[in-house]
Amino acid sequence: MGRYILRRLGFYLIAAWASLTLNFVIPRLAPGDPAAAMFARFEGKVAPEAMGALRAAFGFTDAPLHAQYFTYLKHLVQGDLGMSYAYFPARVSEVIGTGLMWTVGLAGVAVIISFVVGSFLGVLAAWNRGGWLDSGLAPALAFLGAFPYFWLAMLALYLFGFVLGWFPLRHAYGHDMEPGLSFAFAADVARHAVLPASSIVVATLGGWMLGMRNTMVATLGTDSIRLAHARGLPPRQVMLRYAARNALLPNVTSFGMAVGFVLSGSLLTEIVFSYPGTGYLLILAVRNQDYPLMQGLFLVITLAVLAANFAVDLLCLWLDPRTRAHA
């Protein structure tokens, strides 16, 4: 098993190195550089003599390419992702850190809730085939999941925010609130998160439920489950410990990929609600041609997906003894 873990870790480290290298090479293949774009944007406000300093600040120097590459890696090890010129003079790491906090709090919690509730409903639907969960709720959630999640977000915003006025229309907290560790601020943040989080949960719940339900049905027909019934084990133990644990593996694997959905910030949902997460930051970075911020977001999302998939591999080793036997 140790050799298997080391092999998988080596694979993810190579993938991470490839991502870092692409993150360095691609901007240098594009015409121009961030300093030139910033100079054009602030024409008349930035002296031409400052171009050299700006290019050095953004990592574009006249040094050989391999020297620039090692300097780039050194800065990454120190946690320096460069300087954002849309938020100049803020560092990219500071800008991403702020957006990441809101995205993990919103989309991260929403996806976890959707995964846990959807998987559990799928187990119950498969165990009680033909019941109202299987014949009524599953098709209804699949129907809702067929709609684009940004459309559900706009519908929720119009109905519950604009028409009924139950929830705020935009942002992560009210403009009259002072951010801090207080119950009033936390309650206001939770109230602002209800509509965007609910739209994500409703849009993804059916997929988790149907995936778990179909895998669970196949698992219930295996010899191991028949043997568990023949031994007289309690039905709840058979359902959860034997059937659900084996059927959960495909959903766990998909959950690792869903992290990309989380850290890309549920892009359109954040735009609909003007939520200040990483998805909203990405749109602003593209609109302002902020290459360092785009690079930083790409890198953070890629590394997070790789880390999540490595964690899923370890979780599958723990959940499935057969995986440990062949590792």
Automatic annotation (TrEMBL):
InterPro entries xref list = MetI-like, MetI-like_sf
Residue ranges crossing the lipid bilayer per the database entry: 9-26, 100-128, 140-169, 189-210, 248-273, 293-319
- Give the main localization category: membrane
Q: Can you list the GO cellular component terms from the UniProt entry? A: plasma membrane
Q: Write down the superkingdom of origin.
A: Bacteria
Span of domain ABC transmembrane type-1: 100-312
Location(s), subcellular: Cell membrane
Q: Please give, as recorded in its UniProt entry, the membrane topology of this protein.
A: Multi-pass membrane protein
State the UniProt keywords alphabetically. Answer: Membrane, Transmembrane, Transmembrane helix, Transport
PROSITE patterns the UniProt entry points to: ABC_TM1 (PS50928)
GO BP annotations of the record are: transmembrane transport
What family does the Swiss-Prot or TrEMBL record give for this protein?
Belongs to the binding-protein-dependent transport system permease family.
Protein name (Swiss-Prot/TrEMBL) = Putative oligopeptide/dipeptide ABC transporter permease
